[in-house]
Amino acid sequence: MRTILLSITLLLSCVGCSGCNDSKEHEEQPKTGTENMYSNPIIDRSLPDPTIIKAEDGNFYLYATEDTRNIPIYKSQNLVDWTFVGTAFTEASRPTFEPNGGLWAPDINYINGQYVLYYSMSVWGGEWTCGIGVATSDKPEGPFTDQGKLFRSNEMEVQNSIDPFYIEENGKKYLFWGSFRGIYMIELSDDGLTVKEGAEKMQIAGTAFEATYIYRKNGYYYLFASIGSCCEGVNSTYQLVTGRSQSLFGPYLDKTGKDMMDNGYSLVIGSNQRFVGNGHCSEIVQDKAGNDWVFYHGVDVKKPQGRVLLLDQIQWDNDGWPYVDNTSPSLSAEKPVFN
Asked: Is 49 a catalytic residue?
C-alpha cells in the first residue's frame, strides 16, 4: 500500500481546490460518437467532488465544489446530457461561518420533504477552523437557504472536518465526514439540520482517506473513499478505493481482510494515460436496465486545468466487489439506459 507522505497530507488540508473559478459561460455539453455511446469527460469543465440526486420532478441534479462560485447545479434526464441551471447560493445568501472560506464537497439529500445540502467550508490549510454546514430548499435547483454550521473542526475535535456524507439507517440519521485525519460519523437530529443532542462521534476509518460515500448492496455496506493527492494537476495521485462491512458502523475490510481503520483498501478506479487523479465519487445511480453508475472527478492530461466530470459504470465481481473496466476511466462507453 502506498504511503501518504506528510507533505501531501498537509497540502490536502481542508482540500477542495476552490481556487479554480471559471467565469466562462456554461453550456450543455455536446457528445461525440454513436447514438448509444458517450465519451468522457461528461462535462468538460472543472466540477470537483460531485454529488447527485434524482429529484421529485424526475430529473437528475448534480452539485459540485465551487470552482464555479457558490456551488454549481446541473440538470439532466439521462446522466449524459447536462444543462447548467444556476448556483445553490448567491453572494448575498452565501454561508459566512468561515470568513473567506470556499464551499467544497457538497452532499445533496431529500429529507422530510425538502432538499438538504450539506457543504464543507474552509480556507486552504485551515484544518482547525474549517467545518460543515447545511442549507435547505423546496426545489432542487434552489435557491438554498443557509441554516448555518453543524460544527467546526475545533468544536468536534476532529482535525480537517470536511467532506460530509449523509445516510439513514433504521429511522436514524447520520453524518460521516473527514479528510486524512480519520473518517468519523455522528448521529443527527430528526430533521438532519443539527447534531443530535448528546450524540458522540465514532471513528470508522483511518488517516489514508477522505470523501466518504457508503452504498448498501446484497447485505453489505460499501465504504467508497479517496486516497492520494487531488489537486496537483497531472501529478495528482488521487484514486477511488473501497472496503465493506455487514454493519454501517464497521468494521470495513478490504479484499484481503485488512481493516480500513488500519488504512486497508481495495482499488476501484486508478489512472490511465488520459485521466489521472481520479476520485471523490458521487452517489451511485441505477438506470432502467439495473446498471449502476457513478460520477467522479479527474484531471484530463489534454487539458489539465481543474478537475473534469467523469462517468463510469460500476460493476460487481463474483465475490460482490465493485470495479470499473480496466480499473480506470473509460474514454467512451455505452450510455446509461433511461428509455
From this structure: yes
- What is the spatial distance between Cα 68 and Cα 18, in angstroms, rounded to a whole number? 9
Q: Which of 66, 107, 127, 210 is catalytic?
A: 210
φ, ψ at 261 (rounded to 5°)? -65, -30
Instruction: Label residues 269-278 b or e (16+ Cβ within 10 Å = b).
Output: bbbbebbbbb
Indicate if the pLDDT at residue 205 is higher than 50: yes
User: Is residue 210 among the annotated active site residues?
Assistant: yes
Amino acid at the residue 163:
D
> What does DSSP assign to residue 30?
P
The domains of the chain, with CATH numbers, are 6-21+37-334 (2.115.10.20)
Residues 128-171 pLDDT 10s: 999 999 999 999 999 999 999 999 999 999 999 999 999 999 99
How far is Cα 36 from Cα 183, in angstroms, rounded to an integer? 39
All three cell numbers of 82, joined, read: 447536462
Each residue's pLDDT tens digit, 272-304: 999 999 999 999 999 999 999 999 999 999 999
Helix, strand, coil percent content, the chain, rounded in steps of 5: 5, 45, 50
Q: In sequence order, which residues have a C-beta less than 8 Å from that of residue 63 and are 6 or more positions away? A: 50, 51, 52, 71, 72, 73, 74, 88, 106, 108, 117
Secondary structure (3-state) at 7: helix
Q: What angle do CA 259, 263, 266 make, to 5 degrees?
A: 75
